[in-house]
Structures are given as C-alpha cells and as structure tokens.
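Quick one:
INPUT:
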C-alpha cells in the first residue's frame, strides 16, 4: 500500500537558504572526469570555498556574467556549438588582492580541470 502525500502549495522561492527544495540551474554540459592541481586545492581551502559549488557554478553558467563579456560569450558558444572548451574564472579574493582559480572543461567534455592561471 502506498502512502499519499499531502497537498502542498509549492514554494517557488529559489533561495537555498529559505527553501529546502531550492530549484537548481540545469547543467549545461558534462564535466567528464574532474581533476585538480594541488595549488588550486590549497587556494580553495585557504579561502574556505567549496569546490563542489565552484564546479556547479561552472557547469550551470551561474557566474559567467561576472567574467569578461567576451569570455562569457565564448562559453555560451562552446555550450551550443560543442566544439570548444568552457573556461570559468573565479576570484576567491578581492579586487585589491585577487586569488583566481580557473575551471576548464575540454571541448570533448571528457575532462574538467581545476587549476590556477599560473599552472596553465
């Protein structure tokens, strides 16, 4: 015997802090195997960032609007044309003291790499 769930009006507030069932943005592409360089992992840990959250923002394009407009447009072209890499740049620091991490998904979507620009 199955139990019927009560009728509940959905809460359409998409804020994760206010709604336990927050709507997530859809993934725009596959990440493939995810790898990270030790310096990138150290920097992410140093700033208390979440690698899972960074990967989610990369895969859903939620932070692309914070990048250079040309880089943002290149990412959208890569998603739709499926023949170019997707690169997201995150500044974990401040404008005065940047701490930049890149996440790059290769054009084949087989590998995503988390790294520092200096490791490229």
């Amino acid at each position: 015997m199955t139990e019927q769930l009560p009728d509940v009006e959905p809460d359409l507030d998409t804020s994760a802090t206010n709604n336990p069932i927050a709507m997530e943005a859809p993934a725009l592409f596959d990440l493939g195997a995810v790898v990270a360089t030790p310096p990138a992992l150290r920097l992410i840990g140093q700033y208390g960032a979440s690698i899972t959250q960074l990967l989610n923002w990369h895969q859903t394009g939620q932070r692309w609007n914070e990048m250079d407009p040309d880089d943002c447009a290149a990412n959208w072209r890569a998603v739709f044309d499926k023949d170019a890499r997707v690169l997201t740049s995150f500044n974990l620091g401040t404008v005065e003291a940047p701490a930049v991490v890149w996440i790059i998904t290769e054009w084949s979507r087989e590998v995503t790499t988390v790294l520092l620009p200096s490791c490229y």
